[in-house]
Specification:
The protein has three helices and nine strands; from the N terminus they run E-E-H-E-E-E-E-E-H-H-E-E. The strands form two sheets. A seven-stranded mixed β-sheet has the order 1-2-7-6-3-5-4. Strands 8-9 form a two-stranded antiparallel sheet. Helix 2 runs antiparallel to helix 3. The longest helix has 27 residues. The protein starts with 19 loop residues before the first strand and ends in a 13-residue tail after the last strand.
């Protein structure tokens, strides 16, 4: 008995829905047309779901460009629904941006949210990138989110330290009150 293995055959890839946020159709043109939050840094696995999601709303995507600094492997082509999507790379392109091209519709620029981003931060970035007429570039949005995330973490640490130290009550006028200033509960204990 002879068994033939086709080493070129790839296992079937299960497409997860693209995590995508697009600007609404308005007359306001911004620097970004939305945001994409891929599940991994594997373009060959991620681009088919993105192209399929955009085919319905924007038309057939024919080319994609990325900055190779964010992607470990940049394939020249990716198979999408029986057709070929051409992938290019430019080191001059903003590393946090993906450019999509179509022969019939034109060009779209999407913020690429790193796959390891926490859901709350990704949600803020997706909303910010989809604001019609926004003049913020992809790199600026990512830098802003870094500062916001740092501020949220610092606030959480300060609140945790406050709680660990016993906290302090505030009067209705915003002045700190000691425990002796608190009214006694019905049982007389503070």
């Amino acid at each position: 008995m002879t068994t033939t293995l086709d080493r070129a055959a790839k296992p079937a890839v299960v497409l997860r829905p693209a995590r995508l946020s697009l600007t609404p159709n308005t007359a306001l043109a911004g620097r970004l047309d939305g945001a994409w939050w891929p599940y991994s840094r594997d373009l060959e696995a991620e681009l088919p779901a993105l192209a399929a999601a955009l085919d319905e709303t924007w038309g057939r995507v024919t080319r994609v460009t990325v900055n190779p600094s964010r992607w470990p492997v940049v394939p020249r082509t990716v198979a999408v629904d029986g057709r070929v999507l051409h992938v290019g790379w430019f080191t001059e392109q903003d590393p946090d941006k993906l450019i999509l091209l179509s022969y019939t519709v034109g060009r779209w620029d999407l913020l690429v949210i790193p796959p390891e981003t926490e859901p709350a931060a990704a949600s803020r970035l997706m909303a910010a990138a989809a604001i019609p007429g926004s003049v913020l570039a992809a790199g600026v949005l990512m830098a802003n989110e870094t500062v916001i995330g740092r501020g949220i973490r610092d606030t959480g640490r300060r609140e945790a330290a406050w709680e660990d130290e016993g906290g302090a009550c505030m009067s209705p006028f915003g002045e700190p009150m000691g425990r002796t200033a608190l009214p006694l509960p019905a049982n007389g204990w503070r």
